[in-house]
Amino acid sequence: MNVVYSTFCNVCTEILRRPQGCHTTHTNGESQAVVADDAHYIPRAVLLDLEPRVINTILSSPYARLYNRENVYLSKDGGGAGNIWAAGYTQGERLEEEIFDIIEREAEGSDSLEGFVMTHSIAGGTGSGMGSFILERLNSRFPKKLIQTYSVFPNVEDTSDVVVQPYNSLLTLKRLTLNADCVVVLDNTALHRIAAERLHIETPSLAQINQLVSKVMSVSTATLRYPSYMNNDLIGLIAPLTPTPRLHFLMTGYTPLSTDTEVSTVRRTTVFDVMRRLLQPKNMMVSTPVQRGINHCYASILNIIQGILSLTWSALQ
């Protein structure tokens, strides 16, 4: 759930330019936020957790004013799920009416609801267990709406103190396969490798890993917020990338990568160079085999390139 905080901060600052949420740019921000009476954006976000630490951090941050407090739900006992899938799932069942009162109220407030985007981890108890339950209920309550998830997979190279982590992951993967229309895989193993090899950070912090996640979420949904010729709705993004309903687990790549200290550095890039780098395994945020002699292929590819360029020129490249 720390990812939620990092991600929303990134998206909000990109759209709004300031923590107060003032409407300052010409965007299609209403697709993911509501404009309040005082002309500031309120994200169409529902924040759910079974323990208070992360959400309390969000509500005490400079971005607290952005969120609708009525869309924040914390379990009254605040004990969490103990990193157990079954505990999270059971608590989701027990709290179903309270949780879906919030979700359905937000859905009814949308002019033309297209779908849901869920951010969660598949290794812990709340993200895996309660996340699985919410996926199932979203699918049954809104059968004609799209469900996209940004799912954080565990780091297989790190010894976890959660011995049931593999079981949590497997049980959640079944629900992601059956109930989601699109799953963007964010592999902690690959994220740590990218931080070490590409950003030269020996021991990346959780905040630095979450920064990578937030960049992917921000860029991959940029066409929904900014005027564009294509891919300006959720179905336009998902449909070309999922040739069959069950082939909906997506890999992501991002380039050029930079840390906070390198943001001001300007690099010379071309569309061809960016597209070439995006296909390199070392820039993929999913662990992929890199043995030579093995033929790799992609069923479908979507490149989202930010900058000033000619569509005709980029097509010729």
TrEMBL record:
GO cellular component, one term: microtubule
GO biological process terms, semicolon-separated: cytoplasmic microtubule organization; microtubule nucleation
Cross-referenced InterPro entries: Gamma_tubulin, Tub_FtsZ_C, Tubulin, Tubulin/FtsZ-like_C, Tubulin/FtsZ_2-layer-sand-dom, Tubulin/FtsZ_GTPase_sf, Tubulin_CS, Tubulin_FtsZ_GTPase
PROSITE patterns: TUBULIN
SUPFAM superfamilies: Tubulin C-terminal domain-like, Tubulin nucleotide-binding domain-like
Subcellular location: Cytoplasm, Cytoskeleton, Microtubule organizing center
The UniProt record lists the keyword S-adenosyl-L-methionine: no
Tubulin/FtsZ GTPase domain segment(s): 32-228
Domain of life: Eukaryota
Primary localisation category: cytoplasm
GO molecular function: GTP binding
Record key words, sorted: Cytoplasm, Cytoskeleton, GTP-binding, Microtubule, Nucleotide-binding
A Pfam family of this chain: Tubulin
Family: Belongs to the tubulin family.
Function, in words: Tubulin is the major constituent of microtubules, protein filaments consisting of alpha- and beta-tubulin heterodimers. Gamma-tubulin is a key component of the gamma-tubulin ring complex (gTuRC) which mediates microtubule nucleation. The gTuRC regulates the minus-end nucleation of alpha-beta tubulin heterodimers that grow into microtubule protafilaments, a critical step in centrosome duplication and spindle formation.
Stored PANTHER family: TUBULIN
Protein's recorded name: Tubulin gamma chain
Source organism of the structure: Echinostoma caproni
